[in-house]
């Protein structure tokens, strides 16, 4: 069953053509990794999936809903499609536990006792149960990102979008965040769409690798074919050779 379908999707910012004729299907439960040079359209593509960016033409189906249809309720989409950003976006005036409990309380009307139980289970899952009473300012960047992941999981979404979740972190904090993401990919039927520069993560966890450049999908392949074989696209081969050298 398809979770996300792009059909001839185009996206412009004024005269700038950000996404060119995107055709892409992501099945439920897949972990798909988006890679490519900066400015290639990866973040724009991922942000269209929960309506943070609107497409100009084509069709984008997410969990059975047509995002281009004017009657589509985006709040229904966002209940089932979580997102983890580069810069955490935690509420600074709320504790870690309150950050995680807030959306399920407001959006899902979840029972308070159950909400707290789920939040504490998720804090344990990301290795930060001892930080429940802390405020975001008391956390490291890596800890904040793990809290942001727990917050997204608290809605029990069908799909989570990760927009370069480790790019703002110090190198020693990256592994803790990636390990949480690996656990999610292995332990659940969650659909994951991940924009990342972490090739080790892409090779280990991704079911598929999408390579983008200049707003186009130039390669869509299994991780084995992409990393251990040879990409068919010359631009992708050049990108991969530079990544491997470094």
Automatic annotation (TrEMBL):
Provide any one GO MF term from the record.
ATP binding
Calcium as a keyword of this entry, yes or no, is no
Is Nucleotide-binding set as a keyword in this record? Answer: yes
What organism is the protein native to?
Pediococcus cellicola
CDD domains from the UniProt entry = ABC_HisP_GlnQ
Q: Family assignment?
A: Belongs to the ABC transporter superfamily.
Q: What is this protein called?
A: Abc superfamily atp binding cassette transporter, abc protein
Per UniProt, which keywords does this protein have? Answer: ATP-binding, Nucleotide-binding, Transport
């Amino acid at each position: 069953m398809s979770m996300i379908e792009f059909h001839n999707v185009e996206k412009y910012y004024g005269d700038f053509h950000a996404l060119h004729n995107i055709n892409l299907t992501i099945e439920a439960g897949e972990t798909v990794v988006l890679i490519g040079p900066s400015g290639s359209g990866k973040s724009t593509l991922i942000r269209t999936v929960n309506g943070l960016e609107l497409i100009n033409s084509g069709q984008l189906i997410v969990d059975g809903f047509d995002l281009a249809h004017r009657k589509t309720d985006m709040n229904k989409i966002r209940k089932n499609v979580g997102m983890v950003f580069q810069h955490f976006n935690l509420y600074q005036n709320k504790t870690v536990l309150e950050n995680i409990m807030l959306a399920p309380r407001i959006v899902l009307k979840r029972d308070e006792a159950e909400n707290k139980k789920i939040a504490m289970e998720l804090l344990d899952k990301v290795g930060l149960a001892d930080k429940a009473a802390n405020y975001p300012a008391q956390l490291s960047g890596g800890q904040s990102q793990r809290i942001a992941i727990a917050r997204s999981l608290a809605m029990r979404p069908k799909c989570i979008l990760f927009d370069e979740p480790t790019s703002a972190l110090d190198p020693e904090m990256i592994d803790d965040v990636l390990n949480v993401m690996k656990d999610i990919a292995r332990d659940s039927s969650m659909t994951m769409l991940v924009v990342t520069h972490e090739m080790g993560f892409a090779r280990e966890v991704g079911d598929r690798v999408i390579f983008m450049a200049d707003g186009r999908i130039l390669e869509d392949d299994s991780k084995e074919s992409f990393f251990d074989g040879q990409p068919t696209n010359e631009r992708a081969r050049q990108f991969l050779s530079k990544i491997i050298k470094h």
